[in-house]
Amino acid sequence: MAQFVVQLRFDVTQTEQRMEVRPAHREYLATLKAEGRLVAAGPFTDQTGALLVYDVADEAELRDILAKDPYTPAGVYELATLAEWQPLFPFS
């Protein structure tokens, strides 16, 4: 397994649309968390984006997860960062 960090940048012109899709997005994230594929997730306090940490087999699996996220077809974010992460002090 590998850990990946994803930073989303929200499209501020799509805030209303994002708020409409957010319940489905959060439900999807809760499912990923229960499956052990999502380590941590949350928006920035200024609501300009979010940071998510995934534990997946590889980048292909992560890209599949992102494609299925309700935020993706809604077009409410830009992928700012997608990087494999090597934590020195992992989450407990």
UniProtKB/TrEMBL annotation:
Source taxon at top rank: Bacteria
- Report domain YCII-related positions: 11-85
Pfam families referenced in this protein's UniProt entry, alphabetically: YCII (PF03795)
**Family assignment from sequence similarity:** Belongs to the YciI family.
User: What is this protein called in UniProt?
Assistant: YCII-related domain-containing protein
Source organism per UniProt: Kribbella hippodromi
Q: Lineage, please?
A: Bacteria, Bacillati, Actinomycetota, Actinomycetes, Propionibacteriales
